[in-house]
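FAQ

Q: What does a record look like?
A: Structure on top, sequence underneath. For example:
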């Protein structure tokens, strides 16, 4: 069973609409307050799920996966980020939290 944190559709859309290609890869170009909101939400979702005994990965759409990883990597370097297409079909997924 793969325990995952999912990303709220509104947040996925905000990130998707603001992805820019840079020398280091795809990066969402967001206002500072939006970045803070994303990082706080990731932190809250991770803390809540870990207190319940889960060690989740973050599940994203394929479109935003590289940009989302680049966005949170400095603060959360050990958090795995996967897109749904990277998970084999025979692996069961359980959503244990929401990043919103």
């Amino acid at each position: 069973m793969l325990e995952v944190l999912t990303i709220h559709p509104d947040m996925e859309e905000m990130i998707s609409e603001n992805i820019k290609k840079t020398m280091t890869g795809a990066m969402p170009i967001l206002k500072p307050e939006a970045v803070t909101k994303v990082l706080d939400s990731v932190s809250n979702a991770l803390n809540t799920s870990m207190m319940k005994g889960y060690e989740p990965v973050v599940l994203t759409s394929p479109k935003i996966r590289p940009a989302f990883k680049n966005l949170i990597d400095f603060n959360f370097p050990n958090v795995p980020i996967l897109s749904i297409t990277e998970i084999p079909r025979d692996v069961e997924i359980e959503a244990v939290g929401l990043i919103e």
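Q: Is there anything notable about this one?
A: The two ends are 23 Å apart (CA to CA).
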